[in-house]
Amino acid sequence: MIYGTGIDLTELSRIATMLKAGLKLPEKVLTPAELAVFNSYGPKRQVEFLAGRFSAKESYSKAFGTGIGSQVGFKEIEILDNDLGKPEITRQPFDGAAWISISHTDQLVMTQVILERGKS
User: Fold this and answer.
1) 43 to each of 36, 61, 88, 103, how far by Cα in Å?
2) Which of 62, 75, 86, 119 is catalytic?
3) Is 28 one of the annotated active-site residues of the chain?
4) Which SS3 state, helix, strand or coil, does residue 75 take?
5) What is the pLDDT of residues 49-58, one digit of tens each?
């Protein structure tokens, strides 16, 4: 049974601007494992990766029904790619299954998360 669904759009230029401004966005949004992946990429792919994880975690919080804040923080959600390159939610506060999709254009990243009870 579907518990919740969330979608988000994030502009890549917004994330790039924040990175250039020296804001500690990667450290605020990414878990240590995600940060290791982020640091292995070049500048363009870093923006795409960070924008994707930021957007996905926003989508997750919408599906959870709380938004990012006191009940669900960025670092409580971890999204890593499996061996085939498919993003998977590997850590989360929800006690059911979580399904994720991340898609990019040159300007935007779009994400969707579906939270489901009764599946694992």
Assistant:
1) 14, 27, 23, 18
2) 62
3) no
4) helix
5) 999 999 999 9
Confidence (pTM): 0.94
Q: Does domain 2-116 have CATH number 3.40.1010.10?
A: no
Which residues sit in the known binding site for Mg(2+)?
8, 58
**Sequence-separated contacts (24+) of 62-65 with Cβ below 8 Å:** 62/4, 62/5, 62/6, 62/7, 62/8, 62/113, 63/3, 63/4, 63/5, 63/6, 63/98, 63/113, 63/114, 63/115, 64/4, 64/6, 64/93, 64/94, 64/115, 65/4
Say how far apart CA 38 and CA 83 lie, in whole Å: 17
In this structure, the chain runs to a length of 120
CA 34, 111, 90: angle at the middle one, nearest 5? 40
**104 classed as catalytic:** yes
